[in-house]
Design a protein that fits this description.
Layout lengths: L1 H4 L19 H20 L8 E5 L6 E4 L15 E4 L4 E3 L6 H13 L5 E5 L2 H7 L20 E4 L9 H11 L4 E4 L3 E6 L2 H23 L9 H13 L1 H19 L6
Parallel strand pairs: 6-7
Antiparallel strand pairs: 1-2, 1-5, 2-3, 3-4, 5-8, 7-8
Length: 265
């Protein structure tokens, strides 16, 4: 695809993958959490070839982030294959380079939206399909969708591939106070304060979009929940959301520990 073929120069010099300050247990746990998310996303069909990218700010740092390397499918990724990059395009730990749009989107989002400690960008089919339709993507007609009530925005200004800092900054500016960004004609980006919360939102977002797409396919009118009830349901869900997300991530790691333990390596 074009964003692999027209990659601008990103600093090629890789750092020492064994820098002691980047070998803490907290950082390795973040790597394992992210690797688990990649593997499970592949199982659910959220990925697109060797495109799409997840990132997380390195524990203990505000100017370094973990991201997947260019050329590897989600199902191939392990904790040690992930890169640590700075906001200037330098790989400070790991072998390889990030894909260009991965760098320019994620570096600028993490830099400009500090609350986004994790950023997951996919072209997962149902959410992407709704990003291509007229009007707002979510109708908020199903209970799962209410998890995102008041938390979404739409970046309507598709400008092609994000191949420079200017486009990365524009995307970051489109976020506002939202956690979920539907990127028109493109895909979605999910932002979270933790890897677990970003994963939880990514999973349930695609489920909500799938159910809405199925409902629309009947040709019958899809009726939204009344706003006051939608707001109340959202608040009920948010009360235990962080804990539920943590348990959700633990669950996928247990599954992978049994079936694909190589993700931890």
């Amino acid at each position: 695809m074009a964003h692999e073929l027209n990659r601008p120069a990103i600093h090629a010099a890789n750092g020492d993958a064994n820098q002691p300050e980047l070998e803490t247990e907290a950082i390795w746990e973040a790597r394992r959490d992210l690797a688990a998310c990649f593997r499970m996303a592949a199982r659910y069909g959220f990925e697109e070839g060797i495109c799409n990218h997840f990132s997380a700010v390195v524990p203990g740092y505000d100017d370094l982030f973990i991201v997947n390397p260019y050329g590897w499918a989600f199902r191939e990724l392990t904790a040690s294959r992930l890169l640590i990059c700075d906001f200037h395009g330098q790989v400070v730990s790991g072998s390889g380079q990030p894909e260009a749009t991965a760098f320019f989107i994620h570096a600028r989002v993490h830099k400009n939206v500090p609350r986004a400690r994790a950023a997951f960008h996919t072209h997962m089919p149902y959410a992407t399909a709704l990003s291509m339709t007229e009007g707002d993507p979510l109708i908020f007609a199903g209970q799962t969708a209410l998890k995102f009530y008041g938390r979404t925005t739409v970046d309507r200004d598709y400008n092609g591939l994000a191949l420079d800092e200017r486009e990365g900054d524009r995307i970051a500016a489109s976020v506002g106070d939202a956690d979920i960004v539907f990127m028109k004609h493109h895909g979605v980006m999910v932002l979270g304060p933790t890897i677990a919360e970003a994963w939880d939102d990514l999973y349930y977002l695609e489920r909500a979009c799938e159910v809405q797409t199925l409902a629309l396919s009947t040709g019958r009118e899809v009726k939204p929940v009344k706003p006051e009830i939608a707001e109340a349901a959202y608040r009920q869900m948010r009360e235990g959301d962080a804990d539920s997300a943590r348990l959700h991530l633990q669950s996928i790691r247990r599954q992978l520990d049994l079936e694909e333990p190589v993700y931890r390596m």
